[in-house]
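Why this split exists: single-chain examples teach little about how molecules sit against one another. For that reason, every record in the complexes split bundles all components of an assembly together and asks for one structure covering all of them. Below is a record exactly as it appears in the raw files.
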Amino acid sequence: MDGLKFVGKRIPKKDAPLKATGEAIYIQDLKVPGMLYGKILYSKYPHAKILKLDISKASALPGVKAVITGGDVPNNFKFGFLKDNPPLKSGKVLSTRDEIAAVAAVSQEIAEEAIDLIDVEYEELPGIFDPIEAMKEGAALVHEEFPSNVLKMPWKFVHGDVEAAKKESAFIAEDTFSTQWVTHCCLGTSGCVASFDVGNTLTMYSNTQIPSLAQGDFLEALKAFGLKNKRVRIIQTVIGGGFGSKLDTYAYEYIAILLALKTRRPVKIVFSREEEFLATSPRQPTITKISQGCDKDGKLTFREMAMVLDNGAYTSWGATTPSVMMVPISSLYKVPNIKYTAKCVYTNNTYSQAFRGYGNPQATFAIESCLDQLAEKAGIDPVEIRRINANESGEVTPQNFRITSCGMKDCIEEVVKRLDWKNKCKRGNGKGVGMASLIHVGGAARVYKSDGCGTIIKVDDNGKVDVITGASEIGQGSDTIIAQIVAEVLGIPMDDINVINNDTDVCPWDVGAHASRTTFVAGNSALGAAQKIKAQIMEIAAKNLGEPVDALDMQDGIIFSKNDKEKSIPLGKVLRKAHYSLGGRMLVAEHFYDPPNENFDQTFRGNLSVSYAYGAHGVEVEVDRETGQVKILNYIAAHDVGKAINPMLLEGQIYGGGLQGIGYALGERMIYDKGYLKNGNFLDYKMPTVRDVPPVQAVIVESDEQAGPFGAKGIGEPGLVPTAPAIANAIYDAVGVRIKDLPITPEKILRALKEKEGQKA
Amino acid sequence: MKKEINFTLNNEKVTVEADTQWTLLYVLREVLEMTGTKEGCGYGECGACTVVIDGQAVNSCLYPIMEVEGRNIITIEGLMTKSGELDPIQKAFVDEGAVQCGFCIPGMIMSAKALLDAKPKPTEDEIKESIEGNLCRCTGYVKIIDAIKSVAGGR
Ligand code: FES
Ligand code: FES
């Protein structure tokens, strides 16, 4: 027994009762007095000149309070990672999600009616929809102000000597893999309410995952709008799903701000489902050339990858996904020689952004599919080649990642055992097994200059504890994990802890719910604050009880002497004694935890994360040779999580991530045809339903990460990282065809089977 | 055009002046300001808006308010007892870790309620059938199935 009372326990999520009763207020549910409803008009064409934009009829509609167009955006303001995206476009549109006008009206219905009354004339222009075409010499420029469609971001990582290693390799496998657009499908769509007070303080009710960064973005916008030196307050409503979709700020938010400014009334914009499909930013599609080699014993000698990413028409933070792709590319397995380049290319498609895994799933699909190809060439079992090359603690990888805890081998063995690999592989009867491993950041990721999170703890006169954290709750359970950590340190019941996490006026700074960092960083921050407040409490209690501090302990909210159990005092009483005395004091502690990880240097080296998360997925499939249908018979997801602070919530992350991964592998795809989205609804997009859930086991491997709170590492993203290659590998084992282009649809399998037959004949 | 509609909502008689074009979901959320029932798509494909009408789980976003006359409707707000105790289904969702972002959860619970009221001991397949119109992006459905099973086992 580790003696832990709260950490490691299956404690229900703190906000679950609110959500299960319908009491939780999401952005959809929020009404602010005087609120207007905003609505956006999007471009009809993927690439066109706007010849005429007549808003007179819309403006004249009773109930309409404002209609704005590109001309209403002050100072040519643009947002986004490269500041290439005006919230309302004028003159020219570059994609079908380009915002060209917006309305604020007294009701949603009137706002929609007004949008229909806006009269636009376009002159259609030819567009570029294929990144390969867009890269060619002389291709038309998506942004005429830039010299090339290739973004000026030099993604290149080189380690060792790949050319020399190629010559020395006994076996080499090379191929090209590609991935598709997929979208987050948060059940709660995006939205915000923007509101100014008399002093022009902006309050944004929002479902952002990055309150502190969004605050900065909006302040910058206010400045551009002529409101210098103002304040921005972000209040997060309950968030109906994140998965990276809310890791950036979007045009609709700036539009709501502009409308609120113009009308001097709060303006709410909430996306319809169609809009959510059209105007939020999906995962980047990639085309990856990969080549990997090994020696005669199966030891990897090199990995070379060149990637092209469809950036779309504008640039979000998502353009930095190649930096996270580098994590598996440089460091999944021990590979001495690495070469990686990536190009993000402007097209007239939708622009991409962050989605759980942040580039890692795309990279891992290529690496792990190709690794099976290499194993076959070398005549080595797929499991064996992974065992031979598995990462280990103590290793320093080519990117200078210092590997601390590492449960990769244990995860692989769990998969082997639970899948019954030996008996299930190479049966040649339409059933097959496959596996794939993963590495991801598990101890935060220093993407920004700071990777920190602050926590403030205050204790009230009745012994109740408020934990005020920068961490955003997006459904993953940070509210509960943080409370468990505080409860454990203080020795007080979970119910006595209130977690406040949704208001930048109150909450300390945090860089956001990204990079699987919240348990690790916010957890460590809460841990530090809890230890500080405990020291204060014990000091006062010691005086009251006449005992030395180190003789005291606290359980169930009672402080007692370990020497003499009779000597005890409830927490609330300690507080009142401290408070209601001459020269009294209040009990508040704060702690900022910024992990000792490193930004990349110019060569993309640096210990990005304090620790790394590992895992392996194994899958048994049955492929119907007649229909091409794939049925998953068994799915094992083994994850090295350091320590499970709450195994129940953690399994939820693995199951949820796993099914998103299955959707990515087998069915989900945003179909864009020359810039037009063809399946922007749930019926045609086909995200997994309960009918797609296979028999699945979430296996938790604990490696006790020294730097993590109670030994924990991150688990938010890993669940979907190795899913697609594990499935692709299993399909290959089952029927001998390798699908290199996601999603793996029955049509592709049938086509490949037919080709294979043809080759035989 | 507006018309008076009478129905039973969570065991209380209600009367609303409704536009004949409105859906039940619109009336619940916008007129009665009961926001527990969610809108995830508005066109019958996600189940977030599920309520129980005369024992049947239905998508309230497609249900015309005109057809509600005289019917008996239960929404997520009607499950908790007056003294604030959770319904066993709600409690199971909480205890089994079936709730993440929570947006799909009221609809899931209402689908489960219709099932369990009609069939206290459903098979796993019947459980899946009951929620196959309810999309969830967070949980992978595993713990939702577990939660419904645990109520069925406990009844
Ligand atoms: S909102 Fe009714 S089914 Fe989606
Ligand atoms: S819990 Fe988030 S959609 Fe189901």
